[in-house]
Design brief:
Elements (H helix, E strand, L loop, with lengths): L14 H23 L20 H37 L7 H23 L4
Length: about 130
């Protein structure tokens, strides 16, 4: 009686993780383009600031958006992708079918980029 050897070697990461990382990169690139092109002045006749009918300038609004929405979404996405990928690697390693892939490299690059953005944000925001 022969035992089932299971599927062949794991040669690439799942498509869903690649799509999630690509969407994350696209969101940050779109935000960066907006932030670079946004004005740091409010229109004439409008007070600058938060509350009491005042509005922040577009560049500060972009920073607030990134701080309130983009950073938590990025942290959650990276955490979920990391947990899923580690679980896949552990499972594949136990059966001897794991080989490092380009998706692992992109995941590592994303983790490093997210860390860099967090350091940058916490360095820029206190000066505003």
């Amino acid at each position: 009686m022969k035992s089932d050897p299971g599927p062949g070697p794991v040669t690439r990461g799942p498509l869903a993780l690649r799509i999630a990382l690509a969407l994350l990169w696209a969101l940050w690139i779109c935000w960066l383009v907006y932030w670079l092109l946004a004005s740091d002045q409010t229109p004439p006749g409008v007070c600058n600031g938060l509350g009491f009918g005042c509005v922040p300038d577009p560049k500060f609004t972009a920073l607030l958006f990134a701080l309130i929405y983009l950073l938590p979404a990025t942290a959650l996405a990276v955490l979920v992708v990391g947990i899923v990928r580690v679980a896949q690697i552990v499972t594949a390693s136990r059966t001897g079918r794991y080989r490092p892939t380009l998706a692992d490299g992109w995941a590592l690059l994303t983790l490093v980029a997210v860390g860099g953005l967090l350091f940058w944000f916490y360095g820029v925001l206190p000066r505003l």
